């Protein structure tokens, strides 16, 4: 029997959901009258973990520590939970084997999902095909990267959340994090549904390779793994002003747009380089290994995925309040349009595919140049230069303080004043995206909580 259909998992999941109903936002159970009920739910969870543990021998230390953390939490009166010990014991990055599964249970919030630190439980499965293992062992090493598939989950993941990050767990202190996971099955399923609908609405004739992704979930999942493993490692690589994204700081949201887009465009650029290298090798040697053939295939598909996901999903997903991913998608679309490789003519969208790679790489080069120059710039000057890069392509809101020119008292003051002056929707949707968003709104909404089998 599959784990997700076992009586132990069903009991654990039901107990976790019931426990969520007793928890406060910080994860505690403040109502002492509810403690006996909470204790009963914890007892069910601990028994289920013990029963399921033999099915996950690679996680034996973690599951043992998880049971201890639950017992300690209950014994201390259900205050703010501390699952530091079990988090430290959970090391899934050491088991990047295609198809291997993990039972994951922590009090945690879920990014793009629930802000409550409730007890959430998941069964997940690693996606790690041989060509990805070869990529990671070569020029694209990323020991912290983990690619997963959602098998079953509690309500915190019945949302838009497609990541599992250790920093979301309730714990007494912050350790050195050793892994970060992305659910590529959810990313792929969202992509397939959204791009299919958007291509139909915009009358876009997809290239045959790109069209094939819409009919093949596994192919799309593996494409997203390749995209994300390169994207993820890029956050710490390059001529950076000083770790611009990973240090937690308040700054204008368009800077986050540029950093996320920089990493995606690096994945695009590297995929072009991999495609060119393997194509040349195949012409010289007249054959490629199986893993090289798969790598070549997915290198081309990553390029389509970056463009279509950024343009069709990122641009119109989420609110217009400091939506940095949305802004990145708008910027990519406008950049390609203004360079004549993307056309919206006669109410139909077309691409000049031969010219697209050079245009996309040129945007990546422009952001890299911004970063390189900003190593020698003060922070405020870097922010102003970044804004100029965006507004040379996108039109700011007519009421923008930044577009008009910040007053001297802001320019001479602390950088918080710069951030405060940014409008929630500093770069509104173009007329193209306004119309597309209205038509795509039901499709975007339908992807919340999507699973691989839903497409």
Structure description:
- With about 450 residues, the protein is α+β, with helices and mostly antiparallel strands.
- The protein folds into two domains: about 5-180; about 190-455, no CATH class.
- Helix content is about 50%, strand content about 10%.
- It is built from 17 helices and seven strands.
- The strands form two sheets. A five-stranded mixed sheet has the order 1-2-3-5-4. Strands 6-7 form a two-stranded antiparallel sheet.
- Helix 6 (about 185-200) packs across helix 8 (about 215-235).
- The protein is globular.
- The two termini are about 25 Å apart.
- The model has no long low-confidence stretch (mean pLDDT about 95).
